[in-house]
């Protein structure tokens, strides 16, 4: 039976591990997870172990479902209850009084407000595109955040003996996202005998190669 270790910095749902087994082509494969974020729900029935090395707590085990006892229907009354009287129709509401149009000083105020709104729209169209959009800034911040998370994740992996022991027993180590790439690269340098790959398709190729008998 093959054994894989998943390195992840994202929140994973329980159904994801069913997809992992399907993508790897082995329903009996043993899955151990080293996660920075706790899964979205209870996963003890989906994986062998899930080691949380980041902030937060693991989801609690769901309570067992209670058995619902159906109650017997009440006896039907011998006599049918009298039919309630039909309600008196409510007269339709009167049409609302139309709002009077602004006159005099109010009309002047309305005109000034309209001109101010129009000037604001024109000024907005005249702004350079670089000022109105901040996509490059968001992209740089995202890159920096991913880099910092990757280093922190690797440092936490390196400091946990239980995590390193689990990784040493794996046939393949799989980095699932960008935050786990740095840890995967370092693990590959640390122990060259264990394949460390990025993504499930690459892991499937490694597992298929292990099944081929050596000449």
Automatic annotation (TrEMBL):
Residues 58-107 are annotated as: Disordered. Residues 69-80 have a biased composition (Basic and acidic residues). It comes from Kribbella speibonae. This is Uncharacterized protein. Residues 84-101 have a biased composition (Pro residues). The lineage of its organism: Bacteria, Bacillati, Actinomycetota, Actinomycetes, Propionibacteriales. It comes from the Bacteria.
């Amino acid at each position: 039976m093959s054994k894989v270790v998943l390195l992840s910095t994202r929140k994973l749902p329980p159904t994801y591990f069913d997809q992992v087994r399907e993508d790897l082509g082995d329903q009996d494969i043993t899955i151990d997870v080293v996660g920075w974020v706790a899964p979205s729900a209870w996963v003890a029935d989906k994986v062998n172990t899930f080691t949380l090395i980041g902030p937060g707590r693991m989801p609690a085990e769901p309570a067992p479902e209670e058995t619902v006892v159906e109650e017997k229907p009440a006896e039907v009354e011998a006599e049918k209850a009298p039919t309630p009287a039909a309600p008196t129709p409510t007269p339709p509401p009167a049409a609302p009084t139309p709002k009077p149009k602004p006159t005099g000083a109010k009309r002047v105020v309305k005109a000034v407000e309209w001109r101010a709104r129009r000037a604001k729209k024109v000024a907005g169209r005249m702004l350079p595109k670089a000022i109105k959009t901040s996509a490059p800034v968001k992209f740089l911040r995202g890159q920096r955040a991913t880099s910092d998370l990757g280093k922190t994740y690797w440092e936490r992996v390196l400091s946990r003996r239980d995590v390193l022991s689990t990784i040493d027993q794996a046939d393949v180590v799989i980095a699932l996202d960008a935050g786990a790439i740095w840890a995967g690269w370092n693990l590959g340098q640390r122990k060259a005998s264990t394949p460390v790959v990025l993504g499930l398709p690459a892991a499937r190729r490694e597992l298929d190669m292990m099944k081929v008998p050596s000449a």
